[in-house]
Design brief:
It contains eleven helices and four strands, in the order αααββββαααααααα. By secondary structure, the chain is mostly helical. It is elongated.
Length: 338
């Protein structure tokens, strides 16, 4: 019963915080860093992260307050002003509505945990398989922390696993001649340096925990686009901006003509518009590319999450908001215990 109430409050609070926090994150990403995709990606990643962290804090405090101090209920003595949940959970069909909501939130929570476990397990399996079947192991001079393996399986080039590992096919130089091949490898190396294989399943799991908020999906899509553009900028610094633009144009041709699995070629024709947008951004970033793929990004994300958690703490300090979370926990436990 407590677990079901906690999952419901977690999904509900995370969805509400996501709705409220989307516009500030969008403003920061669009206005403060219009030409820094790395920082934009960090800010958009904070979009799915901070609502769940804030919701965990609020739910923990609300349940603890109800279970340890039931006499401090907002309905005890003279009712205090708060957002009351009792009218929503009272009436003949209230238990049915409550259980339907609990089932939905529990399903989203279980799906989030499964997405995280399966995503990381798949990454580990792909990583071990690549190391076992690869024929050659190298490390670029400009990225000594990344291991580049050469093998016939796994597509043209891709970042695999949870570690800094990139798998490259011998056909890469045939499909992407000259500096284009170096740009493709640099693009995937940037994914490895950013640990996108580790962060991706986590972001997807956090997205499911905000399944009642449509803005969470918008932030997640914006993060995916910004991280690809950040990798394009990094590739332009390693190779050249023109090589990145040529590789993106070549990837467009491959996507339209043959079904190639490539880091620059989308898996379906529906993503061609995104690829065209990246090509336009590559031309826009033709001058002044930043060589550091995470330059300032991690610090911005940490600062954003920290500031929003402080905001959640201040929200909890406001009596009406604190009593609203307490009332929600109290009402859910009361209905589920019937």
């Amino acid at each position: 019963m407590v677990v079901a109430a906690a999952a419901t409050l977690l999904v509900g609070c995370a969805s509400v915080i996501s709705l409220v926090g989307y516009l500030p994150v969008r403003f920061l990403a669009r206005r403060l860093a219009p030409h820094r995709p790395g920082i934009q990606a960090a800010l958009w990643l904070a979009g799915p992260v901070f609502p769940v962290l804030g919701a965990i804090l609020l739910v923990s405090l609300g349940l603890t307050r109800h279970l340890l101090h039931p006499l401090f209920s907002p309905h005890a003595g003279r009712p205090r002003f708060h957002l009351c949940w009792r009218p929503l959970l009272e009436g003949p069909d209230a238990p049915w509505r409550a259980r339907l909501l609990v089932a939905l939130c529990l399903g989203l929570t279980v799906a989030a945990l499964a997405c995280l476990v399966v995503g990381w397990a798949r990454g580990l399996w792909e990583q071990k398989r690549a190391r076992r079947l690869a024929g050659r192991l190298t490390s670029p001079e400009w990225a000594p922390r990344v291991q580049v393996l050469e093998a016939d399986h796994g597509g043209i080039a891709s970042h695999l696993g949870l570690s800094r590992l990139v798998l490259v096919s011998p056909r890469l130089s045939d499909l992407f001649p000259g500096e284009q091949a170096q740009a493709v490898i640099a693009h995937e190396v940037c994914h490895a340096l950013r640990r996108d294989g580790l962060v991706g399943p986590l972001a997807c799991a956090l997205l499911l925990l905000q399944g009642l908020s449509p803005t969470a999906y918008l932030a997640y899509r914006q993060w995916q686009q910004a991280r690809e553009e950040a990798c394009d900028v990094y590739a332009g610094a390693v190779a050249s901006p023109s090589a990145v633009a040529e590789a993106l144009a070549r990837a467009q041709d491959l996507a339209r003509s043959v079904e190639e699995v490539s880091p620059l070629s989308p898996a379906s024709a529906t993503q061609l518009e995104h690829l065209a947008a990246r090509l336009r951004r590559a031309h826009a970033f033709a001058t002044g590319c930043a060589a550091e793929p995470k330059a300032g990004g991690r610090g911005v994300a940490v600062a954003t999450v920290g500031a929003l958690l402080v905001l959640v703490g201040l929200t909890w300090a406001v009596p009406p908001m604190r009593d609203s979370v307490h009332c929600a926990a109290e009402a859910l436990l009361q209905v589920l215990g019937r």
